Amino acid sequence: AARDAVRRGDILPLGGIIRAARDYCPGKFLGARLLRGRNGFLYRVRILRPSGQRIGLTVDAKSGAVVGGRCR
Fold first, then answer.
1. Measured at the alpha carbon of residue 1, what is the angle toward residues 46 and 58, in degrees to the nearest 5?
2. pLDDT of the residue at 36
3. Rounded to whole angstroms, what are the CA distances from 29 to 15, 22, 24, 48?
4. Cα distance between residue 15 and residue 20, in whole Å
């Protein structure tokens, strides 16, 4: 389903989502899950900060904007 959504242009490819999340909160990418939200698709992204802290971010799959979570 995710590949079809990328082909249709409904969501960004995962690489774009990872770049957006790491630009917002630098660190090592640990993983991502695609979720269907009320207003479209969202990615739940996990980042490992240089301090060792794990951060969870919610990223809008269409725009790449971080819509939830904080980089501490």
1. 25
2. 87
3. 11, 7, 12, 6
4. 9
